[in-house]
Design brief:
five-stranded mixed β-sheet, about 1350 residues, 45 helices, alpha+beta
Length: about 1350
């Protein structure tokens, strides 16, 4: 690849803009509009496949076995052919014709643009296109050359230069010459070089060989002039023991007999007169005097006789009984012409033409079909029979009279009047000597009625009679050939149109010696994809292929007749209008071909087309732009507008509703535009862009010259429409206020549709430029560098999808990226290719694309730069350009660029570019909405969020790379020299600064998760970035987020918010937390709530309430933990028990739930009291049974009273210490009563003072204990109504007071301040006065206490 871009021969490129100014920035591609227009084109392409029937449909019918319907004009108004060129025989060749002693033969080879003339053993080749150039060949053996035919060689037998073979016959031998025919390189047509190669392939024969044909696989067949046998000229590369290198095989008498003398001969009826090859069906036909034999090649040297159709003359006479043209003495079979499969879907295969112009058409019968050979379309033949007899025209106008007759004067209904003064002179045909046929067109030579001329009968289908092309006032046929009603019906018995042909006689100079066909242009080949029009439908192909030509070799020279198509008729009518002002021929044409077809052709004439007949000798050159004279163009443009009429609006009433909907019926201008566009683009529209090549590679499927030609014609159309935008608007002289509303709607609908078609037109031109550009850059190589996914897309891509689909945009961008990468890889500036891409195919290379390419080049320059400042400048500029094209950057490309920035230590680019792309990929924040909604599955917004996240991953990858560089040792000298690496720590810090400076909330959230996963949560909390609080509060909530959130609030001085988060975490049911953890969170919550300042945010009262609630929940949680610890040893019991216990560790319960679900069911006495204590629930009916249960459980044990007393003490004291002074859980008086009752029941065992000392150990103050016992002493309530029990209580009180006094007397005792001395002194007097005399110890104790009291107080 060179550094400068070499433009391809794309039309509309830099050298051929034709003055059209392109916008600086191409408009964005509107795919829906392109697809709408594409459907319009496809609809027109499909209609073209059905408007004209094929040949079989016009002939094959049970009631249509005979026809003779012709359109014969009394002048050359609609002549199907016209003389284009006459080239006289060069003077040097005439010398041989004038010699009396020599033998001369002639023939045509249009495939190599030569005519051949033999004089004795000399062979001359005349380049009749150039006109004068000749070449010659001399037969060494001096045998007179009788015939020369051009055939295909067998594959692989000759050198590559040999493209064809010449089979030369003489009376004594047949030999083969190799032919090389190449066009010289360069523009235009100069002389095409013809070279002959000797092959040393010659075989002797004693029979003159005639009618030589060749098959597509290189086999050669001929027939003997004297014996009428079928011969094959077999040749092979090397001679063997059993086969010569070349030999003649007589297939008529068998292989063995062909080597022996002939003892028998064929009858006259069996002798072959003419051979015709049918390469599309892989067979050939042999015409005899009264029959046709069908053969198929079947292996080496072998053929298969398939069928012989005999008694043709009688069969034809049966179908046209009594017609004089089929009389036996006048009727002779002359030639056989193959009908290609594309001409007849019903299978008509050939017709035989008689000497008087009768044509006999043969096709398959309705019998069960059989096949021979492979089961393919071309190798599957059913038995054939005569299906149709077509009689010749009988009232042809003499050629001399055609030029003398004026055009008929039309009547009101455009029906030509019959010339009453002088009818045209007729000419009656009697013998046709030579004939030729191609796709519905038949020409045959007839001797003229004066010396020196031949008359050529020219016939071709009259499409206005057999087609359904929208005619409204179809004029009747101007003339007919017979008066019988049956042959002239315009439709067959089943409603299908019968074949109607134009017929005329044309005079050419000289006597015809040979007729040839100029091969059709390459562009005429229909695309194999999609519906194809009938082979007769020249309306669909006249703007895509050159008019067909027949070549006639006479004794005067070469005459070329060219087919006149409908567009040529129309051009003549426009010239008539321009010269004479006669509009009637144009009206007749419109009535014959319909409004839409007429507008289509007018548009083609107005804008110009490479296939419009230039009416000069350049018609032989394909691809030359032909634009009619400016005056004709102006007339065509005006007629296009006038005949196109107006669009109309048709209302459609929907019954049962009040809404009426309408539909626009477009004008002929819009229909003509869509038709013309569709017909020009049809060879490409449904064709695949590529096809498999060698080594699995793809290559361009359509020939480049075909694409160039189509693009030329589309550009001419666009240029014309750009210069004439008024063609699709209402008349400027008519104010819009006067136009009815319905018509305004129709105009709007039409203009919208035309606008879409014009958008598609511009996009198509650019697409073809793009394809040609890719081919210049070696398309196969470009595709091979694409990803497998893109390669698969390209393989399935048609031109239509390339132009109108998102896949087309995807692959085009991928291919351009490959081109640019190649340019950058070769250190070539991308400016040139970028400018050409934007100029020639801007929609395939947008401004954003160009920015990306230039940015990529700047990265390359940065890598190469040794100056750090310059390097930073290149990188900064690349980042700016990348940011402009961010919305179209593919992710893989973004990943690659990020990698480059990482290697170059360009932190700004590595961080900011992915963030810019993330915003560009979600410009409407649809992904942000999905992210806030937690990325619901199946939500159409989610893919946008996922695109964002992929970009963020690249940022995190860059941060990781920079982190790793910091962790590495110092880079090697080689690395440092390559990348000019900066200080890794500086780069890393800068990267983090840029990342945290982003205002993208989604990115921040992604970044925080990444940092937390890397164990950097503490660092994150210290930074307290902007979006951290929102991130930690965002769903989905996790324990880690809660833990970080409360710590964030603590560091931020928001202790109350921290307490709220901790409380929510402790009470959450979403997380599987241990009970101890929940208790810890509640404890922390209480601590943070207590730290809340009084004046902070004015929430003091709320904070107090919140703190109270937290403390209560903490107390309950502590009870729950105790219950769990008590029950945990039983977790392995029954499964339901274990499950229930395990639930205690999963969530926090209320006190009621703990009491009802655990304390009561599991009979946890202590826990019951604890629940009552914490909840402060005072209910004696609840608490007293619990304490009774405690004492009962101890008393039920069979132990001595002393042991029982110890058990009671060990049970009550811990509970008292925990529960006192809670009356809810520790009813003091009731418990004292229980203790005293036990004491009274065991007076002799339990020492005095045991009960009050237990209460005191429980933490009950001496005052409260004394109050309780004093109440018992004075209560007189059983059992204290018994004096013995009262005396026992008195002893307990004495011990209690003694202990109290000791406590008071203890140094620094807090009890001393509240010691009620006077009250105790008075009480002791009472106790002593009521004490029994026998309780000396008690009395002594009282008295001691009293002495101490009175002595010390």
């Amino acid at each position: 690849m060179t550094s400068a871009f070499t433009p391809s021969p794309s039309y509309g490129g830099p050298s051929s803009t034709r003055g059209v100014t392109r916008p600086a920035f191409p408009e964005p591609v509107d795919l829906p509009a392109l697809q709408n227009a594409g459907r319009v084109l496809q609809d027109r392409i499909a209609k073209d496949a059905s408007i004209i029937p094929d040949l079989g449909d016009t002939l094959a019918s049970t009631s249509g076995q005979l026809s003779a319907s012709y359109t014969v004009y009394p002048n050359d108004y609609r002549a199907p052919f016209q003389k284009r060129k006459f080239a006289p025989i060069p003077d040097g060749l005439f010398e041989h014709f004038n010699e009396a002693t020599g033998v001369t033969h002639v023939g045509l080879m249009p495939e190599i643009e030569r005519a051949w003339i033999s004089y004795n053993h000399k062979l001359f080749f005349w380049d009749y296109v150039d006109g004068h150039e000749t070449s010659s060949y001399w037969e060494e053996r001096e045998d007179a050359i009788a015939d020369v035919r051009l055939v295909r060689p067998k594959p692989g037998m000759f050198v590559d230069e040999i493209t064809s073979l010449l089979v030369v016959t003489t009376p004594v031998s047949v030999f083969i010459l190799g032919v090389s025919f190449e066009a010289p390189r360069g523009q235009g047509r100069t002389f095409r070089d013809l070279k002959l190669y000797a092959t040393d392939l010659r075989v002797n024969t004693d029979i003159d060989m005639v009618s030589v044909i060749g098959t597509s696989d290189g086999r050669i067949f001929m027939c003997g002039a004297q014996d009428g046998c079928l011969y094959e000229l077999h040749y092979q590369e090397n001679e063997s023991w059993f086969a010569k290198r070349i030999q003649l095989i007589n297939h008529s008498v068998g292989g063995v007999q062909s080597l022996l003398p002939r003892f028998t001969s064929l009858s006259k009826e069996e002798r072959i007169l003419f051979l015709a090859a049918d390469n599309t069906r892989n067979c050939f036909y042999a015409l005899t005097g009264n029959g046709v034999s069908i053969y198929k090649t079947n292996g080496e040297k072998a053929i298969q006789h398939v069928q012989t159709i005999t008694n043709l003359i009688k069969s034809a006479q049966d179908k046209a009984a009594g017609h004089p043209a089929l009389a036996g003495d006048k009727f002779e079979l002359k030639s056989l012409h193959v009908i290609e499969p594309v001409e007849s879907r019903s299978g008509i295969q050939f017709f035989v033409m008689s000497n008087n112009g009768v044509r006999l058409y043969f096709g398959p019968t309705n019998l069960p079909s059989y096949s021979y050979g492979p089961s393919t379309t071309t190798g599957y033949i059913r038995p054939l029979q005569l299906l149709h007899v077509r009689l010749p025209p009988t009232n042809l106008v003499h050629p001399d009279a055609l030029a003398q007759q004026a055009k008929p004067t039309p009547t009101l209904h455009a029906v030509p009047k019959v010339q009453t003064q002088a009818s045209p002179r007729p000419f009656h045909t009697f013998e046709f000597l030579w004939s030729s046929y191609f796709r519905g067109m038949t020409v045959a030579s007839h001797p003229g009625d004066k010396d020196g001329n031949d008359y050529i009968l020219c016939m071709s289908p009259d499409l206005s009679r057999i087609g359904s092309i929208g005619q409204v006032n179809l004029p009747p046929q101007p003339a007919s050939t017979m008066s019988q009603p049956e042959p002239y019906r315009n439709t067959l018995g089943d409603g299908r149109p019968t074949l109607t042909e134009y017929a005329t006689l044309t005079c050419i100079p000289g006597m015809t010696w040979a007729i040839g066909q100029v091969p059709p242009s390459i562009a005429a080949t229909a695309t194999p994809d999609g519906p194809a029009p009938s082979a007769l439908n020249e309306l669909a192909t006249q703007f895509g292929e050159a008019p067909f030509q027949f070549v006639f070799f006479t004794n005067s020279g070469i005459s070329i007749l060219v087919k006149r198509r409908a567009v040529d008729f129309l051009r003549a009518d426009l010239e008539e209008l321009q010269l004479k002002g006669n509009v009637q021929p144009l009206v007749e044409f419109r009535d014959s071909f319909g409004r839409d077809q007429t507008c289509c052709m007018l548009l083609g004439l107005a804008c110009g087309n490479t296939f419009i007949d230039a009416q000069d000798e350049s018609i032989t050159r394909a691809g030359i732009i032909s634009i009619p004279r400016p005056d004709i163009t102006a007339v065509a443009k005006q007629a296009f507008y006038d005949l196109g009429e107006r669009p109309t609006w048709t209302e459609r009433v929907t019954y049962g509703t009040s809404d009426n909907q309408g539909i626009a019926v477009f004008s002929g201008r819009r229909e003509g535009l869509s038709l013309y566009f569709a017909r020009v683009i049809r060879p490409l529209w449904k064709a695949k862009v590529t096809q498999p090549g060698i080594v699995g590679r793809q290559k361009l499927r359509i020939a480049e010259n075909v694409i160039v030609t189509v693009q030329k014609n589309l550009f001419l159309l666009k240029d014309f429409l750009d210069k004439n935008p008024h063609l699709f608007h209402s008349s400027p002289s008519e104010p819009s206020s006067r136009i009815p509303i319905a018509e305004q709607e129709a105009w709007r609908a039409e203009q919208n549709s035309v606008s879409e078609i014009l958008s598609l037109l511009g996009r198509t031109i650019e697409a073809l430029s793009f394809v040609l550009l890719l081919n210049d850059y070696m398309l196969s190589d470009l595709i091979s560098h694409c990803s497998p996914e893109i390669q698969q897309l390209i393989a399935a891509q048609t031109f239509e999808s390339l132009i109108t689909s998102q896949d087309g945009m995807t692959i085009s961008r991928a291919l351009v990226n490959v081109i640019i990468d190649q340019q950058i890889g070769q250190q070539i500036s991308v400016d040139t290719i970028s400018e050409i891409l934007q100029h020639r195919c801007g929609s395939f290379c947008s401004t954003d694309d160009v920015m990306l390419y230039k940015a990529k080049e700047n990265v390359r320059k940065a890598v190469e730069s040794r100056n750090p400042v310059e390097r930073q400048n290149w990188l900064g500029e690349s980042l700016r350009l990348f940011a402009i094209g961010a919305r179209i950057m593919e992710f893989e490309k973004l990943r690659e660029i990020s990698g480059d920035y990482q290697q170059l230590d360009y932190a700004r680019g590595a961080i900011e570019l992915p963030l810019t792309c993330a915003r560009a990929l979600d410009p409407d924040n649809i992904g942000l909405e999905a992210w806030h909604a937690a990325l619901p599955a199946g939500d159409p917004r989610t893919p946008f969020a996922q695109k964002r996240l992929r970009c963020y991953d690249l940022v995190l990858d860059s941060l990781t790379v920079f982190e790793n560089k910091c962790a590495k040792t110092k880079p090697s000298a080689e690395e440092d020299a390559l990348y000019l690496q900066s200080d890794p720590e500086v780069v890393r810090s800068h990267a983090y600064e840029l990342a945290f400076a982003s205002e993208d909330e989604v990115f921040h959230s992604t970044l925080y998760d990444w940092l937390i996963d890397r164990g950097l949560a503490d660092d994150l909390l210290e930074m307290r970035p902007t979006f951290l609080e929102a991130h930690l509060k965002r769903e989905p909530i996790t324990v880690q987020k809660f833990q970080l959130l409360w710590q964030f609030y603590v560091k931020n001085g928001q202790s109350l918010r921290a307490a709220e988060v901790l409380a929510a975490l402790a009470e959450s049911t979403e997380f599987d937390l241990e009970l101890s953890a929940r208790l810890e969170y509640l404890t922390l919550a209480v601590g943070n709530a207590k730290s809340h300042p009084i004046s902070a945010t004015g929430r003091h009262e709320t904070a107090i309430a919140f703190l109270t609630d937290l403390e209560e929940k903490l107390d309950v949680a502590q009870v729950q933990l105790e219950i769990f610890n008590v029950l945990f040893p039983h977790i392995g019991d029954a499964p339901e028990v274990g499950a229930r216990i395990n639930l205690l560790s999963k969530k926090l319960y209320t006190m009621t739930d703990l009491y009802t679900q655990y304390a009561i069911p599991f009979d946890l006495v202590d826990m019951k009291l604890l629940c009552l204590h914490v909840s402060e629930h005072r209910d004696e009916t609840v608490v007293r049974p619990i304490w009774n249960q405690i004492f009962d459980e101890i008393l039920r044990e069979e132990t001595d009273p002393s042991t029982t007393a110890d058990l009671i003490q060990s049970r009550v004291v811990p509970l008292g210490k925990r529960l006192y002074p809670s009356e809810s859980a520790f009813p003091l008086r009731f418990i004292a009563t229980l203790l005293v009752r036990f004491t009274l029941a065991n007076k002799n065992v339990v020492v005095y003072g045991w009960a009050p000392r237990i209460l005191n150990q429980c933490g009950v103050p001496y005052t409260d204990v004394w109050d309780v016992f004093h109440e018992m002493y004075e209560s007189q309530v059983p059992p204290f109504n018994d004096q013995a029990n009262v005396q026992a209580i008195s002893s307990d009180i004495a011990i209690l007071l003694s202990d109290w006094l000791k406590e008071v007397n203890r140094p620094q005792s807090p009890a001393k301040a509240e010691f009620p001395v006077g009250r105790i002194d008075r009480a002791i007097d009472q106790y002593l006065g009521e004490l029994e005399a026998g309780r000396t110890e008690t009395r002594s104790l009282y008295e001691s206490i009293r002495r101490d009291l009175r002595r010390n107080w």
